[in-house]
Amino acid sequence: MERLTLGKMQNPIRGFLHGGAALASLVGLILLVYRAQGNATARLGALVFGTALIVMYTISTLYHSFPWGETWKRRLQRLDHSAIYLVVAGTFTPVAIASLRGATLAVGLILVWAIAVTGIMLKVFLPDVATWLSITLQMVMGWLAIIWIPQILTTLGVAGLTLIALGGASYIAGVVVFTTKRPRLAPRSFSYHELFHVMVILGSLLHYLAVFVYAIPAVG
């Protein structure tokens, strides 16, 4: 068994970016729970969303910060990629709780979380699964919300829906940057990979604003 060893930071900028995002997510979770004002359903949505962000950014910070041995690097990479599914489903949860009702809410949550669990299992146990399949599953999850745009628009309004759309666009732009490996800004310090992380953080921030300002207060 390979021994777990740590050394100096491997990718300082990526580590600091997501380390800061992890801390901000923790503060954000506390604020979300407080904003729920004793509403158990709203608090559940807040906990799911906030916890998903904390998990994703914490794993990413660990993965990108230290020069892990090959075995531990592979393990953390699987978790890092798996956490994306967690965040997509976690973001959908409070929006769905606020906007959907009855069987529609149940179907939406079951569908999105079923895809998330499937994606996570594939990443953990079949890590060599085609990248296009992973991206497709994530895109399907993210854009399932299109089906319920009328309900989301009614509940969150134009501003809330716009924030969700812009957050999704930021995530997609990040994926494009990462897959094309462009632009190569400053290859030795801040290149396409760092820009990808910035786009992910921006997407998370926009979705957080949509949840904090519009979704949580709208939960009945």
Characteristic key phrases:
Rhopdopsin 7-helix transmembrane proteins; 7 helices; mainly alpha; 220 residues
Please tell me about this protein's structure.
By secondary structure, this protein is mainly alpha-helical. The chain has one domain: Rhopdopsin 7-helix transmembrane proteins (Up-down Bundle). Helix content is 80%, strand content 0%. The protein has helices spanning 12-35, 40-65, 70-99, 102-125, 131-143, 149-180, 192-218. α2 runs antiparallel to α3 (70-99) and α3 (70-99) packs antiparallel against α6 (149-180). The protein is globular, with a radius of gyration of 18 Å. It starts with 11 loop residues before the first helix and ends with a helix. Residues 1-7 have low confidence and may be disordered.
In short:
With 220 residues, this protein is an all-alpha fold. The protein contains seven helices and no strands.
Write the layout of secondary structure elements.
Blueprint: H1 12-35, H2 40-65, H3 70-99, H4 102-125, H5 131-143, H6 149-180, H7 192-218
The name of the CATH topology is Rhopdopsin 7-helix transmembrane proteins
What is the CATH class designation? Mainly Alpha
Radius of gyration: 18 Å
* Low-pLDDT ranges: 1-7
The helicity comes to over 70%
- Kindly name the structural category: mainly alpha
Main beta sheet: none
Task: Please name the CATH architecture.
Answer: Up-down Bundle
Q: What value does the average pLDDT take? A: 91
The dominant shape is globular
Number of strands: 0
**N-to-C SSE string, H for helix and E for strand:** HHHHHHH
What is the rounded distance between the termini?
52 Å
Number of domains: 1
Number of helical runs?
7
